[in-house]
Design brief:
Blueprint lengths: L1 H32 L2 H21 L1
Helix pairs in contact: 1-2
Length: 57
């Protein structure tokens, strides 16, 4: 059971690291290239997270 729990935790941390690196990359693109498309993606993602939290609460 420990191997399964460790594997699940490792996969979750790997997914979190992937999301974190892509968020940082997107922020750098927004800051240094003024990419409007990336700004729209981040705005939509923030809106979705806010709406999801409101729906859950």
């Amino acid at each position: 059971m420990d191997k399964v729990a460790g594997t699940i935790l490792a996969n979750m941390l790997s997914g979190a690291a992937w999301v974190f690196t892509h968020v940082i990359y997107g922020l750098l693109i927004m800051i240094y290239h003024r990419d409007v498309r990336m700004m729209a993606v981040f705005a939509a993602a923030i809106l979705v997270l806010v709406l999801l939290v409101e729906w859950v609460l």
